[in-house]
């Protein structure tokens, strides 16, 4: 009688080993770009062109110091942080309040507004680039901080509203009704009761928009342009790519420096991401 059970256990363990092996292979596949960036960031340009996959014969850590000076990395880092922080904060505040209003007041206008948010996500950015440049020029929003923040706010609201909308629908109305009975104002209900409960989805919205805004190149080059007072890291790194020469050694060193803050942010928020996934599974 024990043989069938032993065979079942052996079958399950073999399947588990196969799944783990597949997961390891996928992890290595997704981590391979980091390997190429880190390894080639300490090589000479000649070594990169000869064999980009091999380990460096001589580690050239001065590539990082050259990038630091050439692109004025602290200034570019501050500009990227300033634009990202203000834009993400605005997206979180506006989208959470808009989604709460749409869920709790399902009028025809709010339903139509939510449909517009969903429909806007299907429009390719490339189809509105020319109109965006014309409108921002007419409103004198090009080349300044307000213009780039307004653009990120407009393009980032749709997905964030949809994410908050789905999460707020799972928040019990009884909690809000109890707060109203205790004399809490409508704004107090949202900021003191509802918004703290949105922490898991808020972290998700922050991470998604931070990754997008921090690494974005197309929108800054359209809105910021040649304004060196607001040059972000992606714009600064393009200095190493000319018409006839491409300094891959310095560009990869700059790329490695630029992704470090994002990795640190992800590690800091990893606990909240796991909590969000766990709470979502329990609610389901």
Automatic annotation (TrEMBL):
Keyword Lyase: no
Pfam entry (one): BPD_transp_1
Membrane-traversing stretches: 21-39, 76-100, 112-133, 145-168, 189-211, 250-269
Record keywords, A-Z: Cell membrane, Membrane, Transmembrane, Transmembrane helix, Transport
Matching PROSITE patterns: ABC_TM1
Localization per Swiss-Prot or TrEMBL: Cell membrane
UniProt GO BP: transmembrane transport
Gene3D superfamilies: MetI-like
Keyword Membrane: yes
An annotated GO cellular component: plasma membrane
Domain ABC transmembrane type-1 positions: 77-269
InterPro entries (alphabetical): MetI-like, MetI-like_sf
Superkingdom as given in the UniProt entry: Bacteria
Membrane topology (UniProt): Multi-pass membrane protein
Family: Belongs to the binding-protein-dependent transport system permease family.
Record's protein name: Carbohydrate ABC transporter permease
Organism: Cohnella xylanilytica
């Amino acid at each position: 009688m024990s043989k069938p059970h032993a065979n079942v256990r052996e079958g399950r363990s073999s399947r588990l080993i196969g799944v783990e092996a597949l997961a390891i292979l996928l992890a290595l596949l997704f981590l391979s770009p980091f390997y190429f960036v880190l390894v080639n960031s300490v090589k000479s340009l000649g070594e990169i062109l000869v064999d980009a996959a091999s380990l460096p014969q001589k580690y050239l850590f001065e590539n990082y110091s050259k990038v630091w000076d050439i692109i004025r990395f602290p200034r570019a880092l501050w500009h990227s942080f300033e634009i990202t922080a203000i834009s993400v904060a605005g997206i979180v505040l506006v989208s959470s309040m808009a989604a709460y209003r749409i869920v709790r007041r399902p009028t025809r206008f709010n339903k139509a507004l939510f449909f517009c948010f969903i429909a806007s996500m299907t429009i390719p950015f490339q189809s509105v680039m020319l109109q965006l440049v014309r409108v921002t020029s007419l409103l004198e929003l090009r080349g300044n901080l307000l213009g780039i923040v307004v653009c990120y706010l407009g393009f980032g609201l749709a997905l964030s509203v949809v994410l908050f909308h789905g999460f707020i629908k799972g928040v019990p109305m009884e909690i809000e009704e109890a707060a109203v009975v205790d004399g809490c104002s409508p704004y107090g209900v949202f900021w003191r009761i509802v918004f703290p409960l949105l922490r898991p989805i808020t972290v998700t919205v922050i991470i998604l928009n931070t990754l997008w805004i921090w690494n974005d190149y197309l929108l800054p080059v359209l809105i910021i342009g040649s304004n060196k007072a607001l040059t972000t890291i992606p714009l600064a790194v393009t200095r190493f790519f000319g018409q006839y020469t491409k300094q891959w050694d310095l560009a990869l060193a700059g790329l490695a420096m630029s992704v470090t803050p994002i990795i640190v942010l992800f590690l800091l928020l990893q606990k909240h991401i796991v909590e969000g996934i766990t709470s979502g599974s329990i609610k389901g």
